[in-house]
Each structure stands twice: as structure tokens, then as C-alpha cells.
Amino acid sequence: MKGFCEECRDYVDFTIEEVKRDKEIRGISIEYTAKIAFCDECTNELFVSELRDENLETINRNYRLTEGLIQVYEIGEVLEKYDIGKRPLSLILGWGEGTLSRYVDGDIPSRQYSDILKRLQTDFEFMLELLEKSKSKITERAYTNCLRAAQRNLENEKEMMAVFQSEEKIDSVVRYIIYKSVEITPLALQKLLYFSQSFYKAFTEKFLFDNDCGAWIHGPVYRNIYYKYKDHGYNPIDEDVDKFMNFDLTETEKTVIDTVLLNFGCYSGKILEYMTHAERPWRESRNGLEDSEVSDRIIEKELIEFYYKEVLGKYNMINISDIRDYSTDLFRKIQRSS
Ligand SMILES: [Zn+2]
């Protein structure tokens, strides 16, 4: 790609650099990172229309961020969410019929108009109200499509609220693990929960969730989660978790779970089961039981806490990423014993 350099009076190669710039819009100074082309021959700044357009978009976006105005792409999302066109929505809102077209092309809405569009992002009942009031302004078809979409949004929202309200912390962790795993069986899920809980306690002094863990024949098991997924047997859990992308988890909690998945999630459920069989908490909890003896004994939290504190010291773990040494060691151990 070449650009015209005024100094060299010729088409030249150029290099694009990112430069901090300011631009005043409507009396407000907007800081932005501009992409500027410099001539490779004389280092003079060049005019490149594509870069100008890109910079204008950046300024526009930053201005909206600073002023709390709706972004262009968000307006697009609103139209999609309600399955409605720019013109009919403009009419429903009582605006000029070309208003939303201009906004989608990049015109900046006034605060009042922006606030209404923002409200439409999440307030589906507000949309339903507007729709009923302005029914006569749009075609029957536009009305029906929008009505259906708004009702569907409202239902999804209610469903999601119900899920969140009835959810325990462990459910959030489960959903997150399923969401992050390419493929996961109920057996593997149980063990990954157990390792997440144990390492979270070891590194932060707190347990990730309150639930007690059973010392079952096939290793540590969280009973309520077992019953929730037992129909999958040894098959991967194919639950559609993408629908609920909100997890009630802090960044630290996510980091610990991510690291457990990275270092233990690569093993099959059966391997993970053998790993937990090699650890003291499960073995001690099943003291005196036959290998195949069903039991409702739990693995006491203190046992987990004490054991993993020891692991932390023994492996000189400082960062959560250090758990790698432990998982590879466990893996070697069970290979030797089988
Ligand atoms: Zn030049």
C-alpha cells in the first residue's frame, strides 16, 4: 500500500504508528489513540483516507464512552433484539422516520434519545408498552414480529432470573467448568470440582463453596451435582450453558478454576478418579470400607484443608500455576501403581 507524500511529491511506502491525540467534540476534549501514517522516505505525516475514517470512528466511540451515550453497535443489537427495522422503530418512538438510519450510520444521538435507546436494551416491558401505544403507526407484520421478540426476551429474562435465584455457588462453578471444557463427563466434572475446591482453599484460605464432598466408591462426589447429571452416565454433558453466560464468580475464583482445568482437565474422568484415590483425604475417609462398599461418609473439610496445605508446602507452590507439578506427579504415581 502506498500513500502520497506532500514533501516527496510522490507515492511512497509508509509506516503506521499509534499516536495519542486529542480532539474537541461539542466542547469536550476527547483523548484517543490515532493511527497515523508516516512516509518511509522523509518521515512526514501522510494523509490516508482509510486511516482518517478509522480514527473518526475511534473518536466517535470514545466520545460516546466519555458521555455515556449509546454506541452504534448497541443500536444494532437493539434492532436485532426486537426483530424490528430502523424505520418502524423510529416511528414507534415518535421520531422522524429516518432518525435511526442516521444513528446507525454514525450520527451521534442527543442524550435524551440515547437514554431511550439504552432503556430499550434491557427494559422489555417498556418496549411492549410503546408498541401497544404506537401499533397503528407500523405495519401489521412489523408489529407482530416485534411483539413476539419482546415477549421472548421477557420470558428468557424471567427464566434466567429464576435460574440465578435458585442457584447455589457450586452451581455457578459447575456451569463455569462445563462452559470452559470442550468435553466433560459427570465423573470428570466431580473431580474438577473437588480439585477446584481444594486448591482454592489452599491458596486463599477460603472454600469456594459450602457443599460437603462424599467419599464415594469412585472418588470424591458432590451429591446434588451427581443427581443432576447422572443421566449422562459416562457420556459428555451436552448442556447448553452458553445461554447463561453470567457466573457468580470473582476473578480470583475464575483464575483458580481455569488453572485446575488447565492442569487436570486434560485427563479423563477415570484417570482423575485414580488420582483422587491416591490422595489421603479420600482414602482416610473410607478407612475400613471395602473397595466396592457404598457409603455416605463425607470427606471432612478439615482433612482437605490439612492435606492441601501440606501439598502447598511440599511442592513449594507460590502461584496457582505451580499446581502443575502436583498434577503431573499424581499422574506418574497412578501410572506406576497400575
Ligand atoms: Zn516523504
Explain what you see.
The structure is a single chain. The chain has 338 residues and is an alpha+beta fold. It has three domains: 66 residues, Ubiquitin-like (UB roll) (Roll), CATH 3.10.20; 95 residues, no CATH class; 169 residues, no CATH class. It contains 15 helices and seven strands. A four-stranded antiparallel sheet has the order 1-2-3-4, covered by helices on one side. The protein has a three-stranded antiparallel sheet with strand order 6-5-7. Strand 1 and strand 2 form a beta hairpin. The radius of gyration is 29 Å and the shape is flat. The protein starts with a strand and ends with a helix.
Provide the fold topology:
Blueprint: E1 2-5, E2 10-25, E3 28-39, E4 45-46, H1 49-67, H2 72-81, H3 86-92, H4 99-104, H5 111-122, H6 124-133, H7 140-166, H8 169-180, H9 186-204, E5 213-216, E6 219-221, H10 223-229, H11 251-264, H12 269-277, H13 280-285, E7 298-299, H14 301-314, H15 323-337
Antiparallel strand pairs: 1-2, 2-3, 3-4, 5-6, 5-7
Helix pairs in contact: 2-5, 6-7, 8-11, 9-11, 9-12, 9-14, 11-15
This protein binds zinc ion.
